Amino acid sequence: MEIKVDEISKILRQQIEGFERQVDTAEVGTIISVGDGIARIYGLEKVMAGELLELPHGVAGMALNLEEDSVGAVLLGDTTLIKEGDQVRRSGRIMQVPAGKAMLGRVIDPLGNPLDGKGPIEAQAQMPIERIAPGVVERQPVTEPMQTGLKAIDSMIPIGRGQRELIIGDRQTGKTAVAIDTIINQKGTGVVCIYVAIGQKQSTIAQVVSTLEEYGAMEHTIVVAASASSPAPLQFIAPYCGCAIGEFFQFYGDNGQPANAENKGRAVLCVYDDLSKQAASYREISLLLRRPPGREAYPGDVFFLHSRLLERASKLSDKNGGGSITALPIIETQAGDISAYIPTNVISITDGQIFLEGDLFYSGIRPAVNVGLSVSRVGGNAQIKGMKSVAGTLRLELAQFRELEAFAQFGSDLDKATQAQLSRGRRLVEILKQDQYSPLSVEKQILIIFSATGGFLDDLELEHCRAYELEMYQYIDQSHSDLLDSIRSSGKLDDALKDRLKGALSEFKEQFKATHGIA
Predict the structure, then answer these.
(1) Fewest beta carbons less than 10 Å away: which of 101, 265, 332, 507?
(2) Active-site residue set
(3) What is the pLDDT of residues 460-483, one digit of tens each?
(4) How many of the other CB atoms lie within 10 Å of CB of 436?
(5) How far apart are CA 59 and CA 75, in angstroms?
(6) Within a 10 A sphere around the Cβ of 158, how many other Cβ atoms?
(7) CB contact at 8 A, 275 and 330
(8) Cα dist from 410 to 360, 406, 414, 418, 421, whole Å
(9) For the chain, how are helix, strand and coil distributed in percent, rounded to 5?
């Protein structure tokens, strides 16, 4: 075999011409200590606060403490795989989470990984988990209602799109139930719902998901799950991740392009269940990072922890697409103490609170809303006129009833007017009760409140009130559905419509009395 020199030189020349010098420059650090989900790293001099770090075995980290000689980072994964001496690389980007329409109907962890076994999720964008909230100029006032489907809330503590309304109460008083009912009620409205479960048992999260699936609400819902068994750093970032995914739908139109006057953003509902557990996990991380403890051993910036999250709830101006994020944070109290540290922090950040009381819950008043301590500071502007006109006196009447009821326990000799007021109050309390997972349309809520405040229930026994309500809905649906259409389309009750309502309710009452043999 003859070797030709010119052929060899030609091959060598081609290879030299095709050679490119590629230098892989990466800032690398070394782990000097690791334990309790915290790593101290030496050598990452240019790392940013909140930056994503790449560790061996696919474990991610997040830089939180930037000190003179080392970096304190929290580990977002299996910490047992990481040991002293391991190399850490900078990613060059602040912590992000994948987002997109493909996430609807899915259960994910705070890093965007699927947990429901339905295969990988194709993300449309990467959203930063921390973002400065839209400024005043970029927003518009809250004017659109976010209907919960619960009579007690939509009538007296109305919530608007873009509002932050705290749900607060002891454990087992129905806080999650209020949030789940609200999510179910958004079916068919185009609202994207994000339920963030923080520090809950996995069985509880699975139960919530199966309830949403059963009522057809999972189609418009994303569940972000950081269960009790998840590391504290994941529980800490979970609400920010949920909010970042919500911002994708708020800031981008249906075509995936940035929202504007023509390409509208979506309305989003974010439920954070619950922020007490997030604060506890942040306290754990802060103490392990050797940050100085303050009141109740929480770090000094625990207020900022929640304010920077909830301030991102907003209603954008039409020029910016008109999208909105409505936040329903949940806080658990100890023995009804709403003056504790975290509850007062979150009450001062939000635009109102729904206070659920254990005593009311156990006495059968569900949802157990304490009307005296609950308030909605901006939602009144978003309430539809029809509801405003029938429910305007409701809060006052209930407050007077509570006062009279306490007073009436001491004496039996009450005048006719007081007895009538007590009787009306008991009926109002009765019709505001509602079964779980059965949200009502706003026009049906108006009907029953109009019946109660208009005196149609005054001569009925208390035990007949719930039957009256259910049968009245059926009767109106069958015989006077045009009334519901009129309320739905106009949104207000004028005198003509009120007269038609009174006529229909009088007819039904005669029929109801005859059916139930009431004289």
Answers:
(1) 507
(2) 377
(3) 999 999 999 999 999 999 999 999
(4) 14
(5) 7
(6) 25
(7) yes
(8) 21, 8, 10, 14, 17
(9) 45, 20, 40
